[in-house]
């Protein structure tokens, strides 16, 4: 990633840092977080690296003792250090991770940082380098559905046309993760935003509780495994580093 693009991304996220939590504070966002935390809980153990750590969301999702977050935005890192003083947050470029080989038991990247890499093969090579053998990698790029602006937050970073990014299909994500073993790709939230939109339009909206939204997404995940993950609002790809 060239210096100009890095600075563009840094400035953008610096400008969003103070309001970032509010932007993603809806019950739907919180329900998505719960589903993702359940997916990550079995693999995000030991020494964990969070790439594009933002406001420290992963620390809210899971209780991780040995946590390191790396983030491009200085403002995001400053806020995260205040929110989670016992965790470690640093600024840096995900393409040049300042860690030795085989350092982490797992590497996680939530809600889009992968999509900002215009050199994804270089990025995945760098991520694999810092993961221990038999360690896990979990990546969440923006889906093709997001590219077409279908049922996402109006202020989503993904909609900023000035910042180049790659929107992924499940096949693209599996190919990127192909150096790993036991690869899986899961879609999250296929229909919930659509329900929310149309129930408002026809004036029959029900105010679903957070518990109901979580239940909806759990059921959806269980029966949507035959639908390509790019049709979901989010998708997560997971793989294990070969020994």
Explain what you see:
This protein has helices at 3-16, 20-23, 27-40, 57-61, 74-83, 120-130, 144-147, 170-176, 192-201, 210-223, and strands spanning 47-51, 66-71, 88-91, 104-109, 131-139, 181-188, 234-240. With 243 residues, it is of the alpha/beta class. The protein has a seven-stranded mixed β-sheet, with helices on both faces. Helix 3 packs across helix 10. The longest helix has 14 residues, at 3-16. The chain is globular, with a radius of gyration of 17 Å.
Task: Provide the fold topology.
Layout: H1 3-16, H2 20-23, H3 27-40, E1 47-51, H4 57-61, E2 66-71, H5 74-83, E3 88-91, E4 104-109, H6 120-130, E5 131-139, H7 144-147, H8 170-176, E6 181-188, H9 192-201, H10 210-223, E7 234-240
Parallel strand pairs: 1-2, 1-4, 2-3, 4-5
Antiparallel strand pairs: 5-7, 6-7
Short structural summary:
This protein has 10 helices and 7 strands.
Helix fraction? 25-40%
Tell me, briefly, the overall form: globular
Largest sheet: 7 strands, mixed
Strand order of the largest sheet: 3-2-1-4-5-7-6
Separation, N- and C-terminal Cα atoms: 29 Å
- How many helical elements? 10
Radius of gyration: 17 Å
Task: Tell me the fraction of residues in β-strands, as a range.
Answer: 15-25%
Content-based structural category: alpha/beta
Residue windows where pLDDT falls under 50 for at least 5 positions: 198-204
Order of helices and strands: HHHEHEHEEHEHHEHHE
Oligomer: single chain
The counted number of beta strands is: 7
Query: What is the average per-residue confidence, as pLDDT, rounded to a whole number?
Result: 88
